[in-house]
Amino acid sequence: MPIIATIRFSVVCLCVLLFLPAARCAHSQVVVQVIRLPNHSSITLLGWSYGKYHELVPGREARHVNIPPPDKPDPNEIASCETEEDALVLWIRRAGQAARVDNLSIHLAWMRQQVRAADENGHEVTPTIAHWRMNRSPNPRALTDDPIALASFPRRGKTVIVRVYSPDAKTVLGEFRIPNPIRTLPPPLTLSRFPVTAKSGDLEMTLGPVGKGRPRHFLQIGGKSEIYGDSFPPPAGYRPAPEEARRMESHVTFTFRGKPTTHWMLTGLNTAMWDSSGNQMHPDLLGAGYDTLCYLAPNIGEPVRLRISAMQKADAEFVPDRVWKVPGVAVPTPGAVTRSESRIHLENVDLRLLGIAGAGVGEIRPALFSAAPPGFVAVVLRLSYTQEAPEFVLRVSDAQGHAILPSDPPGFPAGGWRGSPWFSHGGAMGTAYSDYIYWVKAPPSGKIDLTFGLNRSHPFEFIVPTSVR
Predict the structure, then answer these.
(1) How many other C-beta atoms can be found within 10 angstroms of the C-beta atom of residue 460?
(2) Is 221 strand, coil or helix?
(3) How far apart (Å, rounded) are the C-alpha atoms in residues 334 and 19?
(4) 3-state SS of 22-50?
(5) Distance between start and end Cα atoms, the chain
């Protein structure tokens, strides 16, 4: 059972709590909510607000929504902040060792791991943390604790419940209850009849009926769940995880330029999930891959819009008009460099092959990178683009036409066929640059042929259920 202490403070007690003159709150009483923690520690809710500007000023605790930013700092203000999005901000005071956090990073981790948002209808979600910026308070008694700032929470109930869990996320330590500040909401999203097809450029994706996921083995280690495959028995120590009940699954198929294809797959890139009220949630994709969409449905009781992406498989045949071939590039010896002036413009991307660096070389101007170890060479490609960063898959063959697979030296960033994005930066007029490094086992001597295939991400959006019968 949640442990909550609800105490009605008199005017004097409240003013003492906030270190403020009693005259500022002479005619008010406030219900202060306290979560009791072990070792005589506690977290106290001092005030809350919803919107983009948030403040804690004695005597104005009843202002919860649409607070106008002041022209200049209020000398009586204890704390204030601004959020990039409309957000729910709870001002808290921590007391005792069990409630202590030493810095903002630990506070953010605490919110991700131990804070949940719920309503009185039984819906509970891991909320999205809002982006906030604290203002400097002129009050010498300014609040030093960071707030709980939530960009998402169940919005269709009468009450918003913010629960604090134990570090292992199993036990509710306490909760704060506040009136739902959202007055009007659009109706829930309407599910389409499955299967449903969406198009992104030349690629079409068809999502089959969504059902409960097939049994999959989970093993909880600490507060996390390790995912095991379907094809073998669960390991020793297995016990079902709570996520199992919310696992949804659907079969997907692809059509490229009007023809069915198996050369495409789902990825975990650029994913998003939100409901009709604007709540954004992490989609928690599980096993996203070749022909199956698997996600953990949030417990909000209504359909959500899911954005996912698909890319071509690294070992699939390249699309002919998305290929750049650079034949006959000399393989450098260790300590040497083969420079290149080869360039091409391909689908709004400028590509420049800077060259190949032999073992021990970590620079082909203007690119800097970790030097390739003995037995390897580094193929260096620079991209210039104005939209989302594309991906180029590299194929290498020697003078006899034998394929040489790109591979990652031990201890180097995993890139393989897709290369490692070593350095990215913005440029003039919205142009961005990225240097990609492809590690290749050096052939004995001679020349190699390079083939780069453009593998652009295709985004799709579907309305999917959060529960099935």
Answers:
(1) 20
(2) strand
(3) 70
(4) HHHHCCCCEEEEEEEECCCEEEEEEEEEE
(5) 30
- Spatial distance between the Cα atoms of 328 and 404, rounded to a whole number of angstroms: 14
Write down the residue that tokens 């060259």 correspond to: 355
Tens of pLDDT, residues 279-307: 888 777 765 556 788 888 888 889 999 99
Count the neighbouring beta carbons within 10 Å of the beta carbon of residue 321.
Answer: 8
Helix H or strand E segment including 11: helix 11-17
The whole-model pTM stands at 0.73
Is residue 265 within 8 A of residue 119, CB to CB? The reply is no
φ/ψ of 191, rounded to 5, equals: -70, 140
d(CA 469, CA 20): 55
Lowest-confidence pick of 19-28, 44-53, 120-129, 370-379: 19-28
Q: In terms of Cα–Cα distance, which of 287, 289, 296 is closest to 311? A: 289
DSSP string, 45-90: EEEEEEEEEEEE-TT-TT--BSPPPPSS--TT-SEEEEEEEEEEEE
Of the candidate CATH numbers 2.30.30, 3.30.360, 1.10.3470, 2.60.40, the domain formed by 332-445 belongs to 2.60.40
pLDDT 10s digits, 167-188: 988 899 999 999 999 988 999 9
Residue 226 has pLDDT above 60, yes or no: no
Rg of the Cα trace of the chain?
A: 28
The length of the chain in residues reads 469
Query: Half-sphere exposure (CA, 13 Å, Cβ side) for 320?
Result: 1
Residues 399-420 pLDDT 10s: 777 887 767 676 665 555 455 5
To 10 degrees, the CA torsion angle through 408, 414, 419, 421? Answer: -130
Q: What digits encode the pLDDT tens for the residues 327-366?
A: 999 999 999 999 998 999 988 888 999 999 999 998 998 8
If residue 336 lies in a helix (H) or strand (E), which one and from where to where? none
What ranges do the domains of the chain cover? 4-179, 196-315+458-464, 332-445
Q: How many helices (H) and strands (E) does the chain have?
A: 2, 34
Edge-to-edge strands, sheet with 458-464? 280-281, 264-274, 304-312, 458-464
